[in-house]
Structure formats: C-alpha cells, structure tokens
Design goal:
Layout: E1 7-14, E2 25-32, E3 37-41, H1 48-53, E4 63-68, E5 71-72, H2 78-84, E6 85-88, E7 97-98, H3 99-104, H4 112-121, H5 125-130, E8 138-139, H6 148-160, E9 166-170, H7 178-191, E10 196-201, E11 212-217, E12 220-225, H8 227-233, H9 235-242
Parallel strand pairs: 3-10, 3-11, 6-9, 9-10
Antiparallel strand pairs: 1-2, 1-4, 4-5, 7-8, 11-12
Helix pairs in contact: 4-6, 8-9
The chain binds 2'-deoxyguanosine-5'-triphosphate.
2'-deoxyguanosine-5'-triphosphate binds next to helix 1.
C-alpha cells in the first residue's frame, strides 16, 4: 500500500523535559492518510503545537510512537525525515534579502520556476508582481514592508518550494483573509494532490472541509472526524463552533 505522506500516532504521551505535573499530550492515537488534509483544533494550550512538533522530531515522545511513511521517526536519519516535512511556524521568519531569496531559503538550488510555482500556490504572486522589483524586491531593512498576511503567504511559499510530502501549517493563515485562505487551500489541492496537509487553527472555517479534524482538549484527543460528525457528537467542537 502507498504510505508516502502517511502519519501514525500510536498511544503517544509527551512531557517536556524537566516539566512537572500532567503530560502535555495524553495517549494520542490517530492516522493521517497520504494526501489527506487534517485539521487540528483546540483552545490555547491544548497541545496542538506540541503534537506537530513530534512529527519532524523537534521533540521525542515520552511514550508510544510516531510513524511517518510507516516507519518510526526515531529510525530515520534526521535529515531524511525532515526533508519529507515542511512546517510553517506560527511566527513568520523573514530576513533582509529579496523576496526570491526568502522563498528559496532552505532549498538554495530552487529554480526560478519552482519559486514562482510555490508563490502562485501560496497566493503570493499578485503582491510580488506589484512590488517595485518583483521577485528581486528587497525585504526588511532598506526594503519594503509587507502585511502580516503577505508575510504568512511568503512563509507558505517557502515551505512549498521544498516539495515536501507533508506540509504542516501552524496557525499560519491567521492573518490571511478568508477568501485568500480558501484560494490557497484550493490551489494546494489542485497542484499537490499527494501532499498530506496538517492545518492547526483556532477557527473552524479554516478546516471545515478537511478530510478529518482532530479536537484537542487539555492534551487529550476528545474528537476525531469530519466537521459534520463532530458537530453531531463532539461537545468541545460544538463549543468552539458556537463561541
Ligand atoms: P496555542 O499555540 O496557544 O494555540 O497552544 P497549543 O494548543 O499549540 O499548545 P502548546 O502545544 O503550545 O502547549 C501545550 C502545553 O505545553 C501548555 O501548557 C504549554 C506547554 N508548553 C509549550 N511549549 C513548552 C515548552 O517548550 N516547555 C515546557 N515546559 N512547556 C511547554
């Protein structure tokens, strides 16, 4: 069977080193199938970022196991594992340099076409074209300023240029308007059918149409299913929906 881009959590518990008290993640089990879009929702501090940090091994599980492509992440060469995964962090990190350099960061040999394609999927093309020097426009000191949402779109383009198997968006469209966000999700589906996509969010509208949504509450997985299923049987999800 095709397991490229598959993610499996088996009874995962996690405690930060040196932290006392309850684990941050408690006995979590789920599967993301290849090509699926999976949403992760839950209140602040519920463990969403901690959960996704285990996939590229930014941290290791305390109990249980995490598998990527059917293999325990601890059995991979770290570089190989991380080559499969692109994470768009909550905080966008752009540097002083051109737009193209910022997109290419982490994949220095990316071609011009690859950069443009990534920018197009991330819905960044129009504002890049409108910038004074296009892709050669300088950002940061001495350069132009971008809005929060534009920075997030560059950050998504930067992740896509790596052509990952797994794309993780950690609240990375929070500053993007809903129409643009919908366009990004649509083009992600069209251009990268095989890409497994995990979307962490605080707003249900961002993940309503996901193949599966995981609901975290205080480190526990309290719901898993489609929007319709969760609206029918997950109280925490309903509370988020109506809040
Ligand atoms: P967010 O980003 O505010 O929506 O919250 P989540 O759902 O992403 O939660 P997360 O995973 O950042 O935090 C879960 C719990 O873990 C919370 O009690 C804070 C704690 N925590 C997060 N990062 C660290 C860390 O680096 N060290 C320690 N000791 N605790 C941490």
């Amino acid at each position: 069977p095709n397991t490229k881009g598959q993610i499996d959590f088996h009874n995962v518990s996690f405690t930060y080193e040196g932290a006392s008290g309850e684990p941050v993640l408690k006995n979590i089990t789920f599967t993301c199938l290849p090509g699926e879009t999976v949403g992760v929702i839950g209140s602040t501090g519920s463990g969403k970022s901690s959960l996704i940090n285990l996939i590229p091994r930014f941290y290791d599980v305390s109990e249980g196991s995490v598998e990527v492509d059917g293999m325990d992440v601890r059995e991979y060469n770290l570089k190989e594992l991380r080559g499969k995964i692109a994470v768009v962090p909550q905080q966008t990190m752009l540097f002083t340099g051109t737009i193209a350099e910022n997109i290419r960061w982490g994949k220095e040999n990316a071609t011009e076409d690859e950069i443009k394609r990534a920018a197009a999927i991330a819905e960044a093309e129009s504002f890049i074209k409108a910038a004074p020097e296009g892709y050669d426009t300088l950002l940061g000191q001495g350069g132009i300023n971008l809005s929060g949402g534009q920075k997030q779109r560059l950050s998504i383009a930067r992740a896509l240029v790596k052509q990952p198997e797994i794309l993780i968006l950690d609240d990375s469209t929070s500053a993007v308007d809903l129409t643009t966000e919908a366009k990004i999700k649509k083009s992600l589906k069209e251009y990268a059918v095989e890409l497994t996509c995990i979307i962490i969010t605080q707003r249900i509208s961002s993940i309503k149409d996901a193949d599966k949504i995981l609901v975290l509450d205080d480190g526990k997985l309290v719901g898993s299913g489609t929007h319709e299923q969760l609206m029918a049987d997950c109280q925490v999800y309903q509370e988020i929906h109506y809040s």
